What we know:
The chain is α/β, with parallel strands linked by helices. Helices cover 28% and strands 23% of the residues.
Amino acid sequence: xxxxxxxxxxxxxxxxxVGQRFVRxxxxxxxxxxxxVTASERSAGRPYxxxxxxxxxxxxxxxxxxxxxxxxxxxxxxxxxxxxxxxSVAGEVESRFASEGVFVxxxxxxxxxxxxxxxxVPEANPxxxxxxxxxxxxxxxxxxxxxxxxxxxxxxxxxxxxxAFGVRQVHxxxxxxxxxxxxxxxxxxxxxxxxxxxxxxxxxxxxKETLKILGDLDGGAIRNAEFIVxxxxxxxxxxxxxxxxxxxGLERPADPDEAIEVMSAFRGVPQELELPSAxxxxxxxxxxxxxxxxxxxxxxxxxxxxxxxxxxxxxLFSLKMGLLSHNTVRGAAGGALLCAELALAQGRIPGIRRP
Length: 355
Ligand code: NAP
């Protein structure tokens, strides 16, 4: 496939923290090309390069900078859109696009817990794409969601441990980066020289989304996983990369070496299918006694791998460890791209085919 034959896609909310990441990742994508960018009325009608406060380390491709920002309404020519919309508007807007026959892959929380919407981490629950059969949008329309950024990091090691030993309970404390709070984000007067032990709504998302993702699809509906998750979330002065300190209780005993082996060997359908955004190894277990660290490890495998370190016995539960994932790549735009690649590779987006 030449670059011009790539599938045209839209990015909804393209001027935000996650929207920019989509634009950057899509520019190099072998299957998709950015055909439309949308945002709020504040930005619509302006060239993207003027409307956006570009905060990526890589340059803004000139052909994207020249695109006119469209209002966030269906009607442009793209069978697939990625939504990085503010949650206050995402729910209604995404339903409208799907009702017009557009396939939506969303980062917003609005539809994540809808019973007929897959909450997808492609290595962890690829079979949940079958929930699309329960959606009643016209031909081509559908909604798939990507979990919260801290949930995604937690899910991959939990999937590996749950399959091997059974998870009974999880306690997690997150140290989350400021890029997770969008643009312009948390004021510098609040975050510099500081840690904020509160992120609105975040703990509930981690506790609930985890159980849906690791639940079983049974008779066309998800039966949630039956363990307990307790989360405490903090915002720290790091630009990108969420660190999570996790204690896990297991049904069957496992020592740290067994857990490390299981997590290191973990692979999923995206690796089997060699999807373009799939990391070769979803989980990297690091040896360093002070690893993982955001600055050192967030870009592992182009930001798509989760790094785990300090796996050791826990005096309350079975094991404890630290894990790290890139919140706007694996935890948002990159994770959503992988969802779309999986859906396409499995023929779940009517009207378009894997190139
Ligand atoms: P953000 O930086 O605040 O960007 C929000 C985007 O939505 C902007 O493009 C904004 O356009 C657009 N928007 C706002 N109000 C709108 C309206 N009424 N109509 C149309 N567009 C509107 O937020 P973000 O951090 O990128 O997050 C985007 C979504 O992803 C949110 O739902 C968030 O919860 C979720 N998410 C974020 C992360 C992360 O790490 N940041 C991770 C996972 C999921 P203007 O520029 O024109 O205002």
